[in-house]
Design goal:
- It contains 18 helices and no strands.
- 61% of the residues lie in helices and 0% in strands.
- By secondary structure, it is mainly α.
- The protein has two domains: 93 residues, no CATH class; 191 residues, Hypothetical protein af1432.
- It starts with 10 loop residues before the first helix and ends in a 15-residue tail after the last helix.
Length: 324
C-alpha cells in the first residue's frame, strides 16, 4: 500500500496560521480545536508529534486537547504554516467546486460523530476529550482516500454520490472497486504508520462494523460508542457516503448492546435516543459553518475582511472548551 500521507493545508487553515503570526501571541485552545476540526489530517500529525519520543511522555496522547498542551500553540502554528510550502494542487474548470461537497460531507460527519461520541462517553468510559478525538478521527481513512483519489472520491463521498446507481451495495465494496481498499483498511494503515495508541487504531480499523466475537463491547467500549455515534450522525443528515435511514439506524443492535452492557449510563434505548435527538441543535449549529475547506471568492473576501479588521475567523461554533 502506497498512500500519500502529507498534503497542503486547506487555504483557509493556512490563513489562520498567517493571522496567528501577525497577532504575535499564542492561539488559544478553542481556536486550535476549530482548525483541527476543519483539517482532520492536521489532527493526525499533531497526535503523531505529541507521541514522539522527543517529548518523553510516559503515557500515550490520545486527545487533541492534551496534544495541544504537550506541543504548545507556537509549535502547532509552525506545523500549519509548514504545509504551505508543499506543492499545491491547482483547480481547473471548477474542480474545487466539485470536490468541495465531498470534503464538506466528510468534515461534517466527523464533527457530528465527535460531538455524539463525547456526549455518550462522558465519564462513563473515558474522558470526553479522548472520546471527542476518537469520534473526529474515526473515518480518517475516508479523508486519506479523498486526498489520494480526489476526483473518484467525490463520486463516492459527495452529496451527489453514485448511490442511486448502486443501490444495495455496501460502502466497503464500492471503495474496494474504486480505490483498491476500503476506508477502514486505510484508517488502520494510517494508525499503524502514525504509531497511534492501539485503542485508537482499533477504532479506525473496526468502527464501521465491529465484531463482538473479536472486539467485545465491555473490552472495547469506545469502539462501540463511536460505531453508534457514526450510525446516528449518518441517519440524521451528516453522511459521508451511503446514507442510512432512521429506521435502519434504530433497528441496529448496537443500541441495545450499549444499554445491556452498561457502556452508557442510560437504562433504556428510548432514553438514549432522547439524549441523542437533544443534540441536534448543537450539532446543526456547529456544522452549519463548516465550510472552511472551500477557497472561492466569497471565502477569500471574508478572510481579507477579517484580517483587515483584526478579527479572527471562526469556522465552527463548537461547544465550550469545558464540555469537550
Amino acid at each position: 500500500m502506497n498512500l500519500r500521507l502529507r498534503r497542503p493545508a486547506p487555504p483557509a487553515v493556512r490563513e489562520y496560521a498567517i493571522q496567528f503570526a501577525e497577532r504575535g501571541h499564542d492561539p488559544d485552545m478553542p481556536e486550535l480545536l476549530r482548525i483541527c476540526v476543519n483539517d482532520p489530517m492536521l489532527a493526525v500529525w499533531i497526535l503523531k508529534r505529541a507521541n514522539s519520543s522527543y517529548y518523553g511522555m510516559r503515557s500515550t496522547v490520545d486527545s487533541l486537547k492534551r496534544a495541544f498542551h504537550v506541543l504548545g500553540g507556537p509549535a502547532i502554528v509552525r506545523m500549519i504554516s509548514g504545509t504551505s510550502g508543499c506543492e499545491e494542487v491547482t483547480s481547473e474548470n471548477g474542480k474545487q467546486d466539485r470536490t468541495f461537497f465531498a470534503e464538506r460531507s466528510l468534515i461534517r460527519h466527523a464533527l457530528a460523530t465527535a460531538m455524539i461520541t463525547a456526549r455518550l462517553a462522558g465519564e462513563k468510559v473515558m474522558g470526553a476529550e479522548s472520546a471527542f478525538t476518537a469520534g473526529l478521527l474515526h473515518d480518517i481513512g475516508k479523508h486519506l482516500i479523498f486526498h489520494n483519489f480526489e476526483e473518484q472520491a467525490e463520486g463516492v463521498y459527495g452529496e451527489s454520490s453514485l448511490w442511486e446507481q448502486i443501490k444495495g451495495t455496501d460502502l466497503h465494496s464500492v471503495e474496494q472497486l474504486a480505490f483498491g481498499l476500503n476506508h477502514n483498511e486505510a484508517g488502520e494503515y494510517l494508525g499503524r504508520k502514525m504509531d497511534f495508541p492501539e485503542p485508537l487504531t482499533v477504532i479506525l480499523a473496526q468502527n464501521s462494523a465491529p465484531d463482538p466475537s473479536t472486539h467485545a463491547p465491555k473490552t472495547y467500549p469506545l469502539l462501540w460508542i463511536v460505531h453508534a455515534a457514526s450510525l446516528f450522525s449518518t441517519s440524521t443528515g451528516y453522511a459521508a457516503g451511503k446514507r442510512v435511514s432512521m429506521n435502519c439506524c434504530l433497528e441496529n443492535p448496537v443500541w441495545q448492546i450499549l444499554v445491556d452492557d452498561q457502556i452508557v449510563k442510560y437504562q433504556k434505548v428510548s432514553a438514549l435516543m432522547d439524549v441523542l435527538h437533544s443534540l441536534s441543535d448543537a450539532i446543526s449549529n456547529a456544522c452549519a459553518s463548516s465550510v472552511i475547506t472551500t477557497s472561492g471568492p466569497a471565502m477569500n473576501a471574508d478572510h481579507a475582511a477579517a484580517r483587515n479588521s483584526g478579527s479572527t475567523i471562526r469556522p465552527l461554533s463548537l461547544p465550550s472548551d469545558n464540555e469537550y
